[in-house]
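Long-time lurker, first post.

We've been arguing in lab meeting about whether zinc ion would sit comfortably in this protein at all. Half the group thinks yes, half thinks no, and nobody has a model to point at. So I'm putting the question to the forum: if I give you the sequence and the SMILES, can you give me back a predicted structure of the complex? Inputs are below. Any interpretation is welcome too.
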Amino acid sequence: MANESCIFCDLKDSTDPNSFLFDDEYVFALRDINPRAPVHILIIPKNHIVDVSRVRLEDEQTLSHMFAASTEIAISEGVNETGYRLAINKGKDANMTVNHLHMHLMGGRTLGAEG
Ligand SMILES: [Zn+2]
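Top reply:
Settle the argument with this. Predicted structure of the protein with zinc ion, as C-alpha cells:
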C-alpha cells in the first residue's frame, strides 16, 4: 500500500525501474543522495512499512528479499570480499530521515564502530 506523502513511495512509482540498482517484486535499491561511504546504497521495500518496529511476521518475504538484494548488490559493487555494513535506523535518535523502512548498505572504506 502506497503512502501519498512518502518520498520512497513516490520514487518507487515515478522512477524508471531500469535506473534502480536492484528491482524485484518486493524491493528496490538506489544510491543514497548523501553518501557517507564510497558505496552507500538504500534497499527499500516496495510496500510502505513505517519503520523496523512495524515489521510483522507476514513481512517475511519482504525482509528476506531485502537481505538477498543486499548480497547481490555487495557483489556487484565489489565490496563483498572487503566487507560492508547493513544498517536500519528507527526514529530521530538514529537519524532516520524518511519514515519508510530502508536498509543502508555501506562499504568501500574502513568503517568506524557503530554509533
Ligand atoms: Zn512509503
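For your lab meeting: Residues 3, 6, 8-9, 48, 100 surround zinc ion (CB under 6 Å). The radius of gyration is 14 Å. Whichever side wins, do check it experimentally.
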